[in-house]
Specification:
The chain has 2 domains: 2-43 and 56-82 and 180-256 and 347-395, FAD/NAD(P)-binding domain, CATH 3.50.50; 85-173 and 257-345, Alpha-Beta Complex (Polyamine Oxidase, Chain A, domain 2). 31% of the residues lie in helices and 26% in strands. It has 12 helices and 19 strands. The chain has helices at 14-25, 66-74, 100-103, 106-113, 126-134, 136-151, 184-191, 235-242, 247-254, 315-326, 350-360, 378-395; strands at 2-10, 30-33, 45-46, 54-55, 61-62, 81-83, 89-93, 96-98, 176-179, 196-199, 204-210, 213-218, 223-231, 257-269, 280-283, 288-293, 302-309, 335-345, 366-368. Strands 1, 2, 10, 11, 12, 13 and 19 form a 7-stranded mixed beta sheet that branches. It has a 7-stranded mixed beta sheet with strand order 8-7-15-16-17-14-18, sandwiched between helices. It starts with a strand and ends with a helix. The structure holds flavin-adenine dinucleotide. Flavin-adenine dinucleotide binds at residues 10-16, 33-36, 41-43, 57-60, 152, 203-204, 232-234, 237, 261, 308, 341, 343, 370-371, 376-378, 381.
Length: 397
């Protein structure tokens, strides 16, 4: 049992760690509880074989991620930043890699493009809004698969206004970047900050109020007591944990759907790979939503491909599909890694759900962050965490 804790944060993904960063910098003692064996959540940089890394989840940070960049600056991490080099995405059509413009119908695109001047995003789904902009056939053949690649799930029903927000770009930072060791270098560094303790393999399974604070029960029987409670968990997990503690918030959270993503990453010697240099592959109606490569930070010896699969296939079937797409034999795979995660499946009306959560939070002693407020992008997580940290610091006595 830990005492004298100011804040306990549940979930050590980027959202929980950004919140912990701000609160710890203000002098509060923070414990982060994480069910997995390592912090990071969707930030998972697989570091094998020796001296090599590749991404199993998030992969790209941008110079428009201003809130995240202020944390990177505070951590002195700029010297580990690596520019992502340009490489093309290709579509996988009938077993062949094709350029994306090759699949677009240009007459349909030109006939639809005038909609760009009159269409509004508000209250429209992604399929409705972008379908009008590019034409229905182009939407189906090209743009819908591209969106599914970005969000690792069909994104047709997402609210159009939640995507592609205008953000200011920092000119002193490469347009897109990662870190030596992968994006997980960032979460590892936050987790090691003074004032923050991260406890892994700590699955939280119950919450209660006690003496003006909170008791957090961890699977295996341990419990933690803290004055303030911050949740940075997938929405369904947060909903379950808050069911009796904050029923209105739990009800709102439980209406957020999620999609499961099963990722398999493989590494092979560059001499065995005959695919051209690629940033990624966009499939059309396949068992996976996207392939992300390490080619944007090229390595002389090795290449890596991470396939983000739909739920439901066996690992064996997935490896068969990976071999078919990459042209590699099983005996040429130097390493196979797996990772499971989930992402919110946003739909119209989502902004109302987020507002409903926020309506019940003030003075509850509870703080909630995650990728289901402003949006799924890392910067949306960072902005939400900064906002909740500021509320916590202002409310805490
Ligand atoms: C494949 C993929 C690629 C992506 N690429 C990009 C990209 O390039 N750029 C970008 O901007 N965004 C990208 N995103 C989106 C972005 O990475 C995520 O939205 C963001 O990282 C989510 O962070 P989070 O902390 O909110 O959630 P998570 O990372 O899901 O963290 C939640 C944490 O809670 C833990 N947890 C769950 N239950 C419990 C429990 N009961 N007790 C304790 N801990 C628990 C989980 O183990 C997890 O570590 C990508 C997402 C995916 C899946």
């Amino acid at each position: 049992m830990s005492d004298n804790l100011d804040v306990v944060v549940l979930g050590a993904g980027i959202s929980g760690l950004c919140l912990a960063h701000h609160v710890a910098r203000a002098g509060r003692k923070v414990l982060v509880l994480e069910s997995a064996a390592q912090p990071g959540g969707c930030f998972r940089s697989e570091r094998q074989p020796a001296d090599f890394w590749f991404e199993m989840g998030a992969h790209t940070l941008y110079n428009s991620y201003g809130s995240l960049l202020s944390i990177i600056d505070e951590l002195g991490l700029r010297d580990r930043m690596l520019t992502r080099q340009k490489a093309p995405f290709r579509m996988l059509v009938d077993g062949k890699l094709r350029s994306i413009p090759w699949r677009l119908s240009l007459p349909e695109l030109f006939a639809s493009a005038w909609h760009a001047f009159s269409e509004r995003k508000q209250g429209r789904t992604v399929a409705d809004y972008y379908g009008r902009l590019v034409g229905r056939r182009n939407w189906k053949r090209v743009v819908a698969p591209l969106f599914a690649t970005v969000f690792s799930q069909p994104a047709d029903k997402f609210p159009a206004e939640m995507l592609f927000k205008k953000r200011t770009r920092r000119k002193d930072i490469p347009r897109s970047y990662t870190f030596a060791g992968g994006v997980q270098t960032l979460t590892d560094r936050i987790a090691a900050e003074p004032g923050i303790t991260v406890r892994t393999n700590a699955q939280v399974h119950a919450l209660a109020r006690e003496d003006g604070g909170f008791v957090v029960e961890i699977a295996g029987g341990d419990r933690v007591v803290a004055r303030r409670l911050a949740l940075a968990l997938p929405a369904p997990v947060a909903a379950n944990l808050l069911a009796s503690l904050a029923p209105e918030i739990a009800t709102a959270l439980s209406s957020i759907q999620t999609a499961k993503i099963e990722s398999v990453g493989v590494v092979a010697e560059a001499r065995h790979v005959h695919l051209p240099r690629l940033a990624g592959i966009v499939p059309v109606d396949d068992t996976f939503f996207s392939v992300v490569t390490r080619d944007v930070v090229p390595d002389e010896r090795l290449r890596a491909f991470t396939f983000h699969f739909r739920a439901g296939l066996t690992l064996d079937h997935r490896i068969d599909r990976i071999c078919a797409v990459t042209g590699l034999g099983r005996d040429q795979l130097d390493c196979v890694a797996t990772h499971s995660t989930s992402l919110p499946s946003l739909s119209l009306g989502h902004a109302g759900i987020a507002k409903e959560i926020d309506r019940h939070l003030p003075a509850s002693g509870i703080y909630i962050t995650g990728n289901y407020f402003g949006g799924l992008a890392i910067e949306d997580c960072s902005l939400r965490s900064a906002k909740e940290a500021a509320r916590l610091l202002a409310e805490a006595v």
